[in-house]
Structure formats: C-alpha cells, structure tokens
Write a structure and sequence with these properties.
about 35% strand, about 25% helix, alpha+beta, four-stranded antiparallel β-sheet, 4 strands, Tetrahydropterin Synthase, Chain A
Length: about 130
Amino acid sequence: MFEVDIRREFSAAHCLRGYRGNCSRLHGHNWEVQAFVRAEELDAIGIAVDFRRLKDELEKILAEFDHTNISELSYFAASNPTSELIAKTIFEKLAAALDDGRVKVDRVRVCESPSSGATYFGAQKRS
C-alpha cells in the first residue's frame, strides 16, 4: 500500500449557530487542509497519484471556500461549518474527483489553528 499527501491553506470566516460561546460570532481562520490518498499499486511509471493532479483537484475545491463566509455556503445550509463537517465535505468532493479503483482518498484533515483540527475518514474499511 502506498500513501501520498499534500497540504494546502485557505482563509475564511464562519460562525457556529447554536454554539454557546464566542464561536457563535463570525470569526476567521487560516485553515490548513491535508489530503491523504492511497493506492495498492503504482502506475506504469511508478506513481501512486500524480501530485500535480492531487494539488489541482484540491485547489479547485478550496477555491470555493477561500475568502468566504463558509456559513453561507450551500453545503452548510442545514448544518454548522465545523472543522469536522468541512473535512467531510472536502473528502467527498475530492473522492468524487480522484477515486478510480486504483487510487482512493483515504482521509482529509482540516485544522483551524496549528493546535486544533479534525480528520474525516469516510465510510471505508481502515487497514
């Protein structure tokens, strides 16, 4: 099994509806996103997944979040844009773009600060 990962950042605001505390008010973060992709086999030239493709796909997704109020995005109309649910949303979008039978998105980690983050693994079997 091979695993590759990349990190990207974006800046955005959010607020947590129903939260008792200062996170209920609009505030911003410099978010860090780390995406992990696995492959059982390498391709004909020895690559699990092309880093350029992985970067391009993740950057397309993050462009939707960058410099926005995440709370106003349609993905979060019925839920709070917590780190957990942001990680799940990014995971699902990245998996839709990359998973092909050989390559599979394993997990996505979203950090709202250097010391606080959440990881979404999807409904896949962990090895």
